[in-house]
Amino acid sequence: MALQAGTIATLHVKNRQEYGWFLEDEEEEAVLLHNSEVRDGFEPNEPVEVFLYQDHGGRMAATMDRPLITLGEYGWVEVVGEEMKLGVFVNIGISKDALVSEDDLPYKFEVRPIEGDKLYCTLKLDKNGRLFAKPATEEKIWDIAKRANKTDMNKDFTGIVYRTGKAGTWIITDDMHRAFLHPTEREDEPRVGQTVTGRIIDVHDDGSVNVSLLGRRTERQKDDAESIYDYLMIRGGKMPYWDKSLPEEIEKRFGISKGAFKRALGKLMKEGKAYQEDGWTYAGAKSESE
Length: 290
Description:
single chain, alpha+beta, CATH 2.40.50.140, 4 domains, 5-stranded mixed β-barrel, 5-stranded antiparallel β-sheet
């Protein structure tokens, strides 16, 4: 069987050159183990286990480093670089990074992975025999996913986005639950490969879950209330917005719904930090004489 990039092979030393060792299989097909790829434990008279890949010149080469992924084997790899018209490069545990083609990335550049993000990938060969990293398919995610239980409802989670689309975002959690994030349950659309945190809001019969990246209602009210109060103080303690302002005015100014605005404003009023009068909101507590 011919030597194949992306696989691990046990080879024998054929001869030594100034720049490395030539290894060969039983068919006497040779490949170079460069001096820089030799590791502790190498014995020229014994079989050596190596990973096969293509070097920067496109030639078959060997390394004693153990890769994070191989052909048909999956693992988490980190994005280490981006090329606008090519895709992203990931560290697969050897001296040469692997390319994830832009064909395997989202169409929208805004949600493509960036340096530091992580992808669940395997290695593949294209029709010309070149080695690429390829993100896991939906079928593969289902294979590794674990069923969530009803008791997981409302629990916090951390996970990594593995797919995004018009319908929403798909995440694999640290507990290996397959999760779906609807656009209404987030503020910004996360990138593929991005680590996100949130909570489980629904558990389906098939063991998958729905999640939210929004804070719990009381947390959101606090955040909204603080933002409104900050704006109020910037305006000298008064603003031309109150609970009867138009929804589109509130959305334009604060980026939240009218319902969220009213809840946050109600919290400020309850705490004595604001009051309303004649279409305006003022900082402080309303005087009882008024």
